[in-house]
Amino acid sequence: MAYQPGPALQTTPMEYAYHAAEQGGVPAFGDQVHPPGKTQIIGADYAALMGDKRPFGNLATRAMHGILAVLAEFFSSLVFILFLTGAAIVAITDGGATPVSAGLYVAVATAFVVGFLMYVGGPASGGHFNPAITLGVALSYVFNPQNNGFKPIVLGAKLFMAILCFVLYFGIQIVGALSGSFMLKSIYGGNVGLLGLPVLTVSDGNGLLIEWFGTFVIGMAFMYSRFLHDSHMSPWIMGIVNGGAAFFAFGLTGASFNPIRFLGPAIATGNYTNAGVYIGGPLLGILTTWVVWEFDRFILRGHYAYVGWQPFTYKTQWQERAHQVWIAEPTKTV
């Protein structure tokens, strides 16, 4: 049975939902209540919660979460470049490596590194370390009507937060990528193997096609595993998908699928060859992901899935879990 607020709480649906949480309310899924004897929050209350009219919330708390998120993205981007371009250098400079074994080096490294970074950094930042993924999440965050529709004040606040967080994420991802590339340059004492800079062995058109489609698939894996299925396997799903894409494309394009994978070694070596392929391909890929994702969740499914990353919305532990629920019937217990 849903929690019944006291007379002093007959103010807004938001206070209703928050007070239920403060009294031990935990979102229940199906017919179960966790822990036993605690409060259920019915779908209508959850819908009200999603209609929070305070897009900026507690600014101090949100700022702290934002700092943690930025630090997580810096660490993830640095490790991503350091390990994966390092693996590429090994694959390129190993005289006995065949195209298959070189691709396998990079694919295995990619699978484990991406899975690890998403597992460790995901709770703090969402686990992006890819400007293309960040762009896709930002677009889905802004163009998500929820219960507020597209009210100008709400849309404006979301747009402001999306632009702010995208700039912060992109900036710190670049800094992390440069840090990783210059660390490799220091370790190897020069531009060995172009510091793992992706190498295009096919035409520009085919390279753009491969980078576009690979990023599209990776973006779909991210959006569906993180926001639709809310799967705890998301880091490893992303690792497997990234690894598979790397194995297929390493001998063709260098398997970038991530602008900082190109920009880090490119800036460190001063070599910007085929920049259009390695920046344009991922951007087109994530835009395709966004269009398909929005069509699926709004048109085909008729549901609104919560999309965001930690600096956008400060959430308690139970809210973090509740925000991942799909609202199919607002009057039904979630």
Structural notes for this entry:
With 334 residues, the chain is mostly helical. The protein has two domains: 52 residues, no CATH class; 242 residues, Glycerol uptake facilitator protein (Up-down Bundle). Helices cover 64% and strands 0% of the residues. Helix 1 crosses helix 2, helix 6 packs across helix 9 and helix 7 runs parallel beside helix 10. The termini are close together. The N terminus and C terminus are likely disordered.
Write the layout of secondary structure elements.
Elements: H1 13-22, H2 43-50, H3 59-93, H4 99-125, H5 131-142, H6 152-188, H7 204-228, H8 234-249, H9 259-269, H10 275-300, H11 317-322
Helix pairs in contact: 1-2, 3-4, 3-6, 3-9, 4-8, 5-6, 5-7, 5-10, 6-9, 7-8, 7-10
Quickly count the helices. Answer: 11
The description of the largest β-sheet is: none
**What portion of residues is helical?**
55-70%
Number of β-strand runs: 0
**Unreliable stretches covering 5 or more consecutive residues:** 1-57, 309-334
What CATH calls the topology of the largest domain is: Glycerol uptake facilitator protein
Strand content: under 5%
Oligomer: single chain
Per CATH, the class of the largest domain reads Mainly Alpha
Number of domains: 2
Q: Going by CATH, what is the homologous superfamily of the largest domain?
A: Glycerol uptake facilitator protein
Outline type: globular
Return the average pLDDT rounded to an integer: 75
Rg over CA atoms: 22 Å
Order of helices and strands: HHHHHHHHHHH
The end-to-end distance, rounded to whole angstroms, is: 12 Å
Computed structural class: mainly alpha
CATH architecture of the largest domain: Up-down Bundle
